[in-house]
Amino acid sequence: MLCSNGCATDIAVKDGQMVGVRGRAVDIVNHGCLGPKGLFGSWQGMANPDRLTRPLIRENGELVKTDWDSAMSRIVERSQELLKQKGPLTHGFYTSGQLFLEEYYALGIAGAGEDPRATLRAAHLRPCPSRRPPRHRR
Questions:
Q1: 102-138: per-residue pLDDT in tens?
Q2: Contact 24, 32 (CB under 8 A)
Q3: Triad 124, 128, 130: Cα angle to 5°
Q4: Per the structure, how many domains does the chain have?
Q5: Same domain (yes/no): 34, 13
Q6: Phi, psi (degrees; rounded to nearest 5) at 17
Q7: To which H or E segment does residue 12 belong?
Q8: How many other CB atoms sit within 10 Å of the CB of residue 130?
Q9: Pairing mode, if any, of strands 17-23 and 56-59?
Q10: Are 41 and 2 in contact (CB under 8 A)?
């Protein structure tokens, strides 16, 4: 699923298509509840005809399909150029605010490049709605 909290889910499949999702009641993380990402952002988006299924890169002003290795190589090359030319403040990461320590560490390393002064600041630390006290859940 999309959330990094590790919520356990049961996924309903019909004719090879995802048709629903629910939280697994016995799970110690989400106790059967799901936040908005798990409830609405997962299975409904899977069948959307506008959903991207492969990376796009810009060539001569147009978006064209490419393979993952080419897309990631382009990201790495451009990121390295920017870090070398202008420093770590050229990079920003939009995160869920629900990352685990190891994920924040990896982002910090990626964003800092070779500049030890660079830091990763977490601006959004609101917990997932599925982890609210029971009286606040739907």
A1: 777 777 776 665 665 655 555 555 556 555 555 444 4
A2: yes
A3: 170
A4: 3
A5: yes
A6: -115, 140
A7: strand 9-14
A8: 23
A9: unpaired
A10: yes
